[in-house]
Amino acid sequence: MPTPVQQAEPAPPASGRGKGIVVAAALALSACSTVQSEPIASAAPAPAAAPSVPMGQQWLYGSAEGAIATRQTFGALTSYATAKARTRPADSVIIDDATGKPVPCGTKPLAAVFDADETLIWNIGPMRWFALRGAEFDAKTWDQWEKTGTGKAVAMPGAIEAMAALRAAGITPIANTNRSAANAAGSEQTLAAAGLGDFRHGETLFLMGDDAGGSSKDMRRATIASRWCVVAMAGDQLGDFRNLFNKPELPPLQRRALATAAPYDALWGNGWFLFANPVYGPSIRGGFDDIFPAETHWEPQQ
Amino acid sequence: MPTPVQQAEPAPPASGRGKGIVVAAALALSACSTVQSEPIASAAPAPAAAPSVPMGQQWLYGSAEGAIATRQTFGALTSYATAKARTRPADSVIIDDATGKPVPCGTKPLAAVFDADETLIWNIGPMRWFALRGAEFDAKTWDQWEKTGTGKAVAMPGAIEAMAALRAAGITPIANTNRSAANAAGSEQTLAAAGLGDFRHGETLFLMGDDAGGSSKDMRRATIASRWCVVAMAGDQLGDFRNLFNKPELPPLQRRALATAAPYDALWGNGWFLFANPVYGPSIRGGFDDIFPAETHWEPQQ
Predict the structure, then answer these.
(1) Does residue B297 lie in a domain region?
(2) What is the spatial distance between Cα A22 and Cα B92, in angstroms, rounded to a whole number?
(3) Which of A190, A294, B213, B221 has the fewest CB atoms inside 10 Å of its own CB, making it the most exposed?
(4) Is residue B204 part of a domain?
(5) Domain that holds residue B191
(6) Keywords, A to Z (chains A, B) (predicted)?
């Protein structure tokens, strides 16, 4: 094994602010409305060094590995959905929260439901802006991004090919996102300009404010399932699948156990497809005791 | 959209050392032997705050999303490999670097080739140790981990089920890792204790030092392909697939273009399966100009 110091590149400068962005953007885009309140400023001292690109953004937005992981997920979703379309399924992959059972398909037309941010498009415009300025995420800037970001958000690797393959198979792509209904035109234009095709508010684009559900997408999912036979669903956050799983207030390992328990565990990769997003979200939480179980603790003999 | 400051958790304290760990561990475990040399210490000032769990570790080792992304990849690999086994393929998914063509299968027995670290097992023992101490990765500690980590490394989510399904389909799992040949017994025991079954040095476990290839796995891949019909290959780093792709010295977006160009792009998710690893590796690199193309630059109107 090589000696790291001989071969290492300089580590990026510490950036508490950079991490603040990640955590804050997490909470806005993934809308975890139950997290305990503490101002970021109290925990994120301004660094001496210039801000650096957060690690998660380096991996997701910059690396071959991040792009390949993304393409693999689009490929798996497309193969699954087009196979399902050939033999119409009896049930949608959307769960009726009243019964805990999938919504029946009947004779409804076929659809696949996607989150938008970090599931169809990468929001590299504002992510760069926040990180470069060492600024916290702020809702005012994000609101401007929804209105004016057209042409600056990029389709995720494999997304354009996936949308084309789904439409060719008679499956309509639908977006269910926590972007604001007040900015519907901007989000329609942003998705179209990224090359993803036609998403129309109220028909194939569902936004926060469309109903009384707030940041929970469950009510919008129920509306979609009442009109469509949903053969696949995709997102980067648990709330994109079932709000019951979101639970940012749970300790990470308990939250993981909840989302991967039977019977719904069988849906991951089989109807439900999760995109890696180590940039923001309730997934990026936890101290040493939260992440590392006691039975795995190890130390070298000095 | 909620106001982040009302709902944010405290951001983790800045940790240049934490980032140092990531970069250094990257270089050791992924063995990018061509990176320019600069001591990490020069770029990673000791932070005032206590070390925190690096973001990438929070996502990968702690979150539901990280576990689900991992399980999805094992599921896709298992489906692909078992389908291939039913109709013996003509070619391995290992490329002969002399010809750029896949190695023929002939009548060789079926196998699937995996990297070990962050592909079969999570090395949470030493990762916790490095992060908790705010210590840089060091080869001496890692060498002790290879020798004494048995029982402290955990099988990745979905790995145990995948090994069982592959073996049941007559496909032998093989590990090709840059752990040291000198520590073969420790690595055999670590994989077995994690519940992954039998990996034998020289038969189904290939290590750095087995040949003159050093940290390049190409020569070991050629040896494996001479004995086995390899129906699937998996890793978390480009070097786990073809050393030609590793190229940590390339700017990130050029490296991404190289690894996702035809004809090999068709193999990702179809024979080659990449696991998300935002914790370490040559994937975690780049400044603002490396990651964010000029045409995507955006700023709010103040």
Answers:
(1) no
(2) 41
(3) A294
(4) yes
(5) 55-277
(6) Signal
Type and span of the H or E element at A102: strand A101-104
B144 residue type, one letter: Q
Spatial distance between the Cα atoms of A261 and B64, rounded to a whole number of angstroms: 11
Q: Indicate the length of chain A as a whole number.
A: 302
B73 touches chain A (CB under 8 A): yes
Structural domains of chain B, count: 1
The interface pTM score, or ipTM, of the predicted complex is 0.87
Nearest to A12 among B19, B252, B270 (CB): B19
A chain contacts of residue B278, beta-carbon cutoff 8 Å: 55-56, 59-60, 66, 276, 278
The first and second tokens of residue A250, run together, are: 């749970």
Separation CA A93–CA A271 (nearest Å): 6
Give a yes or no: residue A84 inside a domain.
yes
Contact A62/B8, CB-based, under 8 Å?
no
Whether the pTM exceeds 0.90: the reply is no
Residue A238 C-alpha, separation from nearest chain B C-alpha, in angstroms: 7
Q: Are B139 and A12 within 8 A, CB to CB? A: no
Chain-chain contact of B72 with A268 (C-beta, under 8 angstroms): yes
Residues of B in contact with A291 (CB under 8 A): 53, 57-58, 61-62, 124, 128
**Which residues in chain B have Cβ-Cβ distances shorter than 8 Å to A62?**
252-253, 256, 283, 285-286, 290-291
Pairing of strands B154-155, B101-104: unpaired
From chain B residues 243-302, the ones with a CB under 8 A of any chain A CB are: 245, 252-253, 255-256, 258-260, 268-270, 273-278, 281-288, 290-292, 295-301
- By DSSP bridging, strand B91-96 and strand B101-104 are antiparallel
How far is it, in rounded angstroms, from Cα B213 to Cα B91? 24
Q: Which of B4, B278, B287 sits opposite A56 (nearest CB)?
A: B278
Task: Give me the residues of A, 184-223, that contact B with CB < 8 A.
Answer: 208, 215
Cβ atoms B123, B149 nearer than 8 A: yes
CATH code of A139's domain: 3.40.50.1000
pLDDT in tens, chain B (302 residues): 332 322 233 333 333 333 333 333 443 444 333 333 333 333 444 445 678 999 999 999 999 999 999 999 999 999 999 999 999 999 999 999 889 999 999 999 999 999 999 999 999 999 999 999 987 788 999 999 999 999 999 999 999 999 999 999 999 999 999 999 999 999 999 999 999 999 999 999 999 999 999 999 999 999 999 999 999 999 999 999 999 999 889 999 999 999 999 998 999 999 999 999 999 999 999 999 999 999 999 999 86
Tell me, yes or no, if A30 comes closer than 8 A to chain B by beta carbon: no
